[in-house]
UniProtKB/TrEMBL annotation:
Keywords: NAD, Oxidoreductase. InterPro entries: 6-PGluconate_DH-like_C_sf, NAD(P)-bd_dom_sf, UDP-Glc/GDP-Man, UDP-Glc/GDP-Man_DH_C, UDP-Glc/GDP-Man_DH_C_sf, UDP-Glc/GDP-Man_DH_dimer, UDP-Glc/GDP-Man_DH_N, UDPglc_DH_bac. Pathway: Nucleotide-sugar biosynthesis; UDP-alpha-D-glucuronate biosynthesis; UDP-alpha-D-glucuronate from UDP-alpha-D-glucose: step 1/1. It comes from Marinithermofilum abyssi. Residues 312-410 form the UDP-glucose/GDP-mannose dehydrogenase C-terminal domain. GO terms for molecular function: NAD binding; UDP-glucose 6-dehydrogenase activity. This is UDP-glucose 6-dehydrogenase. The keyword Zinc does not apply. It comes from the Bacteria. NCBIfam families: NDP-sugDHase. Its EC number is 1.1.1.22. SMART domains: UDPG_MGDP_dh_C (SM00984).
Length: 444
């Protein structure tokens, strides 16, 4: 099939390249000439595992081409994917300006019988609104329109696209549903059809539930800490229940990224518009908002005032295997730490430009181990498991490490604490520090 994908961000580019793997011919369109030039040169404008291999294969097989000419791209596609951004706007409502800008070129240039697929995350009722707009601007043509939400995790987007838990297709057209089945024929997954509004809610409901699990884990972590319990044992006991599972029951510095913060805000906005209160969503947001403060409070309890203290951040992106800083917890931690007078340094394997100017970036994480008074592990990059703790021997004063992701085991950190004097604090677990050595008194 001939597919056009409009909007080549994380979702659009992953969609375009994965559809070439499924055997389709794809045109990728975006208004950014810089992005298109990079892609035509074989360079990715984003960092996402496996995408580089897919791009090379698609170019070698001439299965994809890229353009800034939206109208021309629209005119060639049998199925048109809309993958433009819908960032948070006023009062938590998504900004749909990029989506609205596509209604006219699609209405004027799409071929007869083309299926229009909205893959962007949009508020309830948006698919119906777009369908009406296409009808009016095209002079009364009927359109097969679909909402096909994405469930991609950054860092695992290719795997999630090619091996999904389900494919959701929201449409009132049996023809469109059949075409979508044909499109995804190479992918083995349950195929769920429903009306567009239900499909729109499915996306928000899924992300809201996952965000709730993270905040619930953080709430239980605080309770565990208060009573001297271990949240890891709690999660193992709770997550072993097949009705619950351990997925996203992960305490830490809080959730971030392009989805959970924006989508929970949108849920609240849609609730307000429908006069439908959503206190659970409000609570999970408040728990998440407090997590950066809690990790800084841990540092202050050990170091005293942070005024003038050298604080290091290990990891800056909102999750590992991604270069995305959108709503990353490191941003809130950096700003709050600066307000408390801390002097900040940071290391992240992918970040070369950080929006908080007062944060000095270093190229070796061991610089933080050797020079900082305290460190917060913000992102659980795998390389941090291989840090050389021997560097701590050169310090005059013990390092305080707050593990905001519970990356390390208490047993491992106890051994390092005994060797180096490290003070290790985590989320929802007992603190680790060097055990007092009792001196032996001999009488003569």
């Amino acid at each position: 099939m001939k597919i056009t994908v409009i909007g080549l961000g994380y979702v659009g580019l992953t969609t375009a390249l994965c559809l070439t793997r499924c055997g389709h011919q794809v045109i990728g369109a975006d208004i950014s000439s810089e992005k298109i030039m990079a892609l035509n040169a074989g360079e990715l404008p984003i960092w996402e595992p496996q995408l580089d291999e897919l791009l090379d294969q698609a170019r070698d097989q001439e299965a994809i081409r890229f353009t800034t000419d939206i109208a021309a791209a629209v005119s060639e596609g049998e199925i048109l994917f809309i993958c433009v951004g819908t960032p948070a706007g006023e009062n938590g409502r998504p900004d749909l300006s990029q989506l609205r800008s596509l209604i006219k070129p699609i209405a004027w240039h799409a071929k007869e019988g083309a299926v229009v697929v909205i893959k962007s995350t949009v508020p309830i009722g948006t698919t119906d609104t777009v369908e009406k707009g296409l009808y009016l601007l095209s002079g009364g043509k009927s359109w097969d329109i679909v909402h096909n939400p994405e469930f991609l995790r950054q860092g695992k987007a290719v795997t999630d696209f090619l091996h999904p838990d389900r494919i959701v297709v929201g449409t009132r057209s049996s023809v469109a549903a059949s075409r979508m089945r044909e499109l995804y024929r190479a992918i083995d997954a349950p195929f769920i059809t429903c009306d567009p509004r239900s499909a729109e809610i499915i996306k928000y409901a899924a992300n809201g539930f996952l965000a709730m699990k993270i905040s619930y884990a953080n709430m239980m972590a605080q309770l565990s800490e208060s009573w001297g319990a271990d949240i890891e044992a709690v999660i193992k006991g709770v997550g072993s229940d097949r009705r619950i599972t351990p997925s996203h029951l992960q305490p830490g510095v809080g959730f971030g990224g392009s989805c959970f913060p924006k989508d929970t805000e949108a849920l609240l906005a849609m609730g307000r518009d429908a006069d439908c209160p959503m206190p659970l969503v409000e609570a999970l947001q408040e728990i998440n908002r407090l997590q950066p403060q809690r990790v800084l409070d841990k540092l202050e309890q050990e170091l005293g005032s942070l005024q003038g203290k050298r604080i290091g951040l290990l990891g800056l992106t909102f999750k590992p295997d991604s270069d995305d800083l959108r709503e990353a917890p490191s941003l809130a931690i950096s700003r709050l730490a600066r307000q408390r007078g801390a002097v900040l340094q940071a290391y992240d394997p992918l970040v070369r430009d950080y929006p908080v100017a007062e944060v000095k970036l270093v190229t070796d994480p061991h610089v933080l181990l050797e020079t900082c008074d305290g460190i917060i592990l913000v992102t659980e990059w795998e390389e941090f498991r291989k840090l050389s703790w021997r560097r701590l021997h050169s310090r005059l004063h013990p390092l305080v490490l707050v593990d905001g992701r519970n990356l390390f085991s208490l047993e491992e950190m106890q051994r390092i604490a005994e060797e180096t004097g490290l003070v290790y604090l985590s989320v929802g677990r007992p603190p680790v520090r060097r055990k007092e050595r009792k001196s032996l008194m001999y009488s003569v």
